[in-house]
User: Which sequence fits this backbone?
């Protein structure tokens, strides 16, 4: 796993800002919201809060609409690094929290390939 260089920007409000695509499509096209994205978001938000990581200087977990990479989903992206993850289940979410959000190490096996979803 790669170590991340945490942002040292003096005006950075959060160390990590996490966005979960929760988009659903009514036309039958693939969308993150059809693959457990809401449950993953809820788990991540609860786990971050329980670990006392939430808030200024820490982690913010937000809902997002379409991130425009639907075929690679379900997706989450962590800023300011711009790290895109494709996850499958609660274990993947837990691993991202433990590795990336707590220790600053990218979970390489869950990285969304750059060409995926285009």
Assistant:
């Amino acid at each position: 796993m790669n170590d991340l260089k945490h942002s040292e920007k003096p005006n950075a409000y959060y160390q990590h800002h996490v966005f979960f695509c929760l988009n659903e499509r009514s036309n039958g096209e693939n969308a993150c919201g059809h693959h457990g994205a809401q449950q993953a978001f809820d788990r991540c938000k609860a786990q971050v809060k329980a670990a006392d990581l939430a808030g200024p200087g820490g982690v913010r977990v937000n809902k997002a609409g379409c991130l425009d990479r639907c075929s690679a989903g379900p997706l989450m992206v962590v800023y300011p690094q711009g790290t895109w993850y494709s996850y499958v289940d609660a274990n993947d979410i837990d691993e991202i929290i433990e590795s990336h959000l707590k220790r600053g190490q990218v979970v390489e096996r869950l990285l969304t390939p750059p060409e995926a979803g285009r």
About this structure: The CA atoms of residues 15 and 58 lie 5 Å apart. The first strand starts at residue 16 and ends at 21.
